[in-house]
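Sample pair:
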Amino acid sequence: MYAGQVCTRTTKAILMSMLLLALSSNAHSQATISGDAINIPVLTIGEQAFQIELTIVAGTDPIELLVTDFTELTDFSADGASTFDGTTLAIPSLEFEGLNFFANFAVHSDDPPAFVFVDAGIVAPEPPQSCVRPDPDPSHGPDEPNIIAGIAADPDFLADGGPGPDGIPAIENPIFTQDFGSQSISDSTLVVGVKIGDDVRAYSHTVMDHHEIVNDVFMIEGVQEPVSLNYCPLTGSAMLWKGDMLADNPTFGVSGQLYNSNLIMYDRETGSWWAQMLEMGINSVNRLAIPDRLQVIETNWGTWREMYPQTTLMTKDTGHERPYGLYPYGNYKTSSGLLFNVNNPGDNRLHKKARVVGINVGDASKVYPIDSFSEAVSVINDTVGAMDVVTTGSSALNFGAIFNRQLEDCTTLSFSAVQDQLPIVMVDNEGGEWDVFGVAVSGSRSGTQLQKTNSYIAYWFAWTAFFPGAAIYQ
């Protein structure tokens, strides 16, 4: 929009005749009064901006203002600027005798250009910002990764897993049941648990070991949204990503490629590769793109059923004939051997297949071994990088999760453990109880969700391959 669209032709002609040479200005946008003149450093009219001087007409009631100087700006910031929409001149901040006022003036005449006072009031000062809550990084990868042959990954640790694209078939139409006896699942079987609203589902490792990806759909905030539940049996890492609702095909498949022995997915819309543990696209159209991620809880089936007896379980009716229940990689889960080349294979501070829940905050990385938690529910108030976090877990119940314990209102909570009340696992210093997904279920903050962090469970060798030098909670 141009000035001529909000001013009359007469006003424009008079004002433009008063223009001086165009100047660059980064002046502060607050207007000031000096004697009988009001100086407005930045006045926007559509997409144009001007520095304007108004002179108060003596003896007028209500107060009238005449335009007495007018300079076009070619470099300006519109933040806090005064505006003119063709009818009203609005000054959001006018300094007078140490106070800030807002003031509004209406067009009084076009020739000469003049305004008349409408209303004004004191602008209340903004309350001081008590804190700045650090947000999770967009992804686990470096901010500026090296791009080699078009791929944001070190080629030394890329490997062809063997089966080829879709050689490990993703599950496209998962079926769920509450007839658990028909699925021959034991209480010790690990599952990936998801709870979105009242919809509670479990995906067992015995099925995921043979498929790695489930393309599913959840109702999220009243909208049916595609999601991808992905699990890498070689790195022991499970995640839930939202699909691209704008894509004709929002699903993912198994590429057959690995990075640091970890699953590389491909999206069927563009064919781009996605490194699971980096949670980032690494080539093609979606290179450096970040998926929208949702919280999962990985634990054993007995614990999950105790937490959420209303859960459903993904069945073995996948449309594929597979030896479900037979682990496809022999003694891999317990041995110290690896099948593929990885970065930093010599970090033996923990057993290579020790399951850890880890978190990345900026350049800081830290893990909490699942076996190091007590058998009872544990809660650890900690700080990683610039973020105050709370970690909860149990070695006997076989789970671990990490959340940001600083709330949006800048309150930093302190938590302690709650026993024998699953899915409630902790209580804060205000007396509110919170569940394993970081949701307050009682107290004045009931319904509040602790912020998800860049954290998940994986094998130790995989965590240190992607994030060398990670600290271990002792």
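The longest strand covers residues 99-110.
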